[in-house]
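User: I'm curious whether this sequence folds into something compact or stays loose and floppy. Could you predict its structure so I can see for myself?
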Amino acid sequence: MNNSFNTVTIDRQALVNNYQLLSKLAGESRTLAMVKSDGYGHGQIETSQALAQAGCDLFGVAELSEGVELRESGCRGEILTFLGFDRGDVDYFFSCTLTPVVFTRTDLQALAAGSVKHNRSIEVYLKFDCGMSRLGFNPSEYQEIVEFCKSLKGLKVKGVMSHFPCSDEPDSPSNNAVYERFTSLLNNSAEGSGFEGSLANSGGLINQPQAHFGMVRTGISLYGYHPAGRQAGQAEKLGLRPVLSFHSRVLQLNHIKAGTGVSYGHTFVAERDMTLGVLPVGYSDGYFRALSGKGEVIIRGKRVKICGRVCMNLCMVDVTDVTDVQEGDPVTLIGTEGSETIDADEIGQLSNTISYEVLCAIGNNNQRIYM
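Assistant: Here's the prediction. I'll summarize afterward.
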């Protein structure tokens, strides 16, 4: 049974293409595939399986539960968890062989206690805040934290991480400041030189080649988008291909007279006799209300505009000038049809947000079809 009028299609080959391009760009650095938040709306399990078949053996998730699910799905690669954990769940790191990224002393102590309990050592990455003002130890604590880890039985520091806040802006002065701060950590002790460094996210991978270190972490670029959005066609220049497309259908054709109001609040009033296509997609499907009166979709190879407010499950488009339009016709919300393309960057610009949010909202709300 088809669960919905709306479908999200995931192109596995485009995903593999992007991974291979980014791995080549990373050079000798290891390439981590970030599959958190259900693979940015693309499906954590399915995307990880496709990437593993392409040779990826390093994956990143946010929460511990995501890591457990990924391991239980059969993933054999190294899985890093980035968002900490509840103390009562520490056993999962050992039973599922997961690698924690740690940013508190109490987490280090809990992991060391787990190591003693399971009679098994565990490798960790230490997270330092070098400019993001988010998670991480203070860089001034570096030597103290390293010594603290050495005092804990069964705990081994594998690497040191931080995060660029402005790597999608190549000319931002913060990039060099963060890079130098992070580099000073790795050079701060004899132990540091043996740790694997990881600083570059998608923007860092693309714009800051000096900051690749031992591991780069690919996120939005893995799914076909440039972290700076539609920036002079950078995604296309790199050869990245959007992985997700989003389709609906014309549920009903509605012929209205000039002067007729459309949808909630009658924010749109027809200036001529019109034919509206009613689409069974709305903000409960991740198609944002902010697209009201601004967004466009593609029907029979022609762009048509949203009329009035996007509803919870429906929206209306002007199909007056679409030749031979019929009920049941397919509708492209994100993707390419003929010479027309609508991507997540366009949706993001119109909705005052970014491609990341668009992909997660749409991909997590609709059934997926994997090509």
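Summary: Residues 12-26 form the longest helix (15 residues). The radius of gyration is 24 Å.
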